[in-house]
Amino acid sequence: MISRQKKLKKIKDSNRMLTPAYARRELTESVPKYVMPENEMLPRTAYNIVHDELMLDGNSRLNLATFVTTWMEPEARQLMSETFDKNMIDKDEYPQTAELEMRCVNMLSRLYNSPNDGKACGCSTIGSSEAAMLGGMALKWKWRARMKAKGKPIDKPNMVMGIDVQVCWEKFCRYWDVEPRFVPMEGGRYVINAEEVLKRVDENTIGVVAIMGTTFTGQYEPVEKINKALERLNKKTGWEVPIHVDGASGAFIAPFIQPKLKWDFRLKWVKSINVSGHKYGLVYPGVGWVIWRDWEELPKELIFNVNYLGGEMPTFAINFSRPGNQIVAQYYNFLRLGKKGYTRIMQSLQDIAMYLSGEIADMGPFELLTDGSDIPVFAFKIKKETNFSVFDISEMVRDRGWLIPAYTMPENDEHLAVLRIVVKEGFSRDMADLLIEDLKRILKHYADQPVRKPKKPDKQGKYRKHC
């Protein structure tokens, strides 16, 4: 007879050989969710658990809410995979990655027409939020130095911007003790204008933020007109109120398909620009860039020198350790696509956006706020009261996998609820046709229904700055 110990050993050995995918102990019982488990498990088991839970996420390619890149070429993905382990801040250990970062900074500086060719000033960041913080800090430090030189108080700085700014600017003002002066929306105006900006500017204004491609409607703000207005004001008063351009999306679009549009360093009072490499820079999240007009616009107090990574190294980003593979991917795109490649892609995206917005406008119930002719992003509303709302539409398209955000506009236009569609690389004309057919089916569904009370936003959907 076989002893008990031998039987147990035989069962144990067979389990080692079999290891079925979903009959293992860890996959037939609940796994800890909020407490670290006591014991380890097989790598494949842990992978299956995480992989299967993530299947509940939406399909990123059908996410028309996000501005963030959801598709890259296999070669770019491979380069990113090969460089996951490189710490961007460790420039002494990874000098070539640091060199690629500076090449990108120089390319962007020239793309934005910096007047100091060959002396590019800027750095990579974790998205545009960090880049915006750095740009805002430089504005505050420069303003403070000007005020001190005049013997004036420095306790009440303010910044002028539209109510349509991304939340990072509200964070900046709160974190760095700056009074935000918001230009509200009025009627059919969803962006700032020079007249409204000047009403809020005074000697304590550290800068004006102008957006190239707003989150709410995808519109460009009139940077050139604001620059002209500030030129007259600064000349009259002796002030030096500058502009920071939030080009998170548009700074990778305007140079290629609207090259005559003046919004960058061609304008005297534009001192800094932030841009998201992980949006229309076509890199997976998260990488951003901040570029200053020249080194004079970056206060020396914001530059730190460290030597504990093996060599003397200046640093002026907020984040320290961060992945280098995103910089590698950004350089790959610059090298791979060049100006002609970026132009072709951005023009294609704009063509698709304008085709899609035109088809939606022709459906009947919808009215466009914007059509995608600035950045390839557009917003639309329902013309009149019906038996459905934009929130119903947003919920219904989810049944087919589409993610289209519905939200109300900010202060002064809170009664207006809209849908917004972001067209980005990976969204084809064929996919646009599929979405059009789905929207038509939804409209037919509601046309066949009795009169009902349309869905209204919940607390979460009432007003969110989707990005």
Observed structural traits:
467 residues, alpha/beta, Aspartate Aminotransferase, domain 2, Aspartate Aminotransferase, domain 1, 38% helix, disordered C terminus
Question: How would you sum up this structure, described in words?
Answer:
The protein has three domains: 4-57, no CATH class; 77-334, 3-Layer(aba) Sandwich (Aspartate Aminotransferase, domain 2); 345-447, Aspartate Aminotransferase, domain 1 (Alpha-Beta Complex), CATH 3.90.1150. 38% of the residues lie in helices and 13% in strands. By secondary structure, the chain is of the alpha/beta class. It is built from 13 helices and 13 strands. Helix 10 links the parallel strand 5 and strand 6 (270-276). The termini are far apart.
Percent range of helical residues: 25-40%
Strand content: 5-15%
CATH topology of the largest domain: Aspartate Aminotransferase, domain 2
Give a count of the beta strands, DSSP E runs of length 2 or more. 13
Sheet bearing the most strands, described?
7 strands, mixed
Q: Strands of the biggest beta sheet: in what spatial order?
A: 1-7-6-5-4-2-3
Q: Can you tell me the CATH architecture of the largest domain? A: 3-Layer(aba) Sandwich
Q: Determine the CATH superfamily of the largest domain.
A: Type I PLP-dependent aspartate aminotransferase-like (Major domain)
Write the topology of this structure.
Layout: H1 4-18, H2 25-28, H3 43-54, H4 74-82, H5 95-111, E1 121-125, H6 127-149, E2 158-162, H7 167-175, E3 179-183, H8 194-200, E4 205-211, H9 223-237, E5 243-246, H10 254-257, E6 270-276, E7 288-292, E8 304-306, E9 313-315, H11 325-361, E10 366-368, E11 377-382, H12 390-397, E12 406-408, E13 417-422, H13 429-447
Parallel strand pairs: 2-3, 2-4, 4-5, 5-6
Antiparallel strand pairs: 1-7, 6-7, 8-9, 10-11, 11-13, 12-13
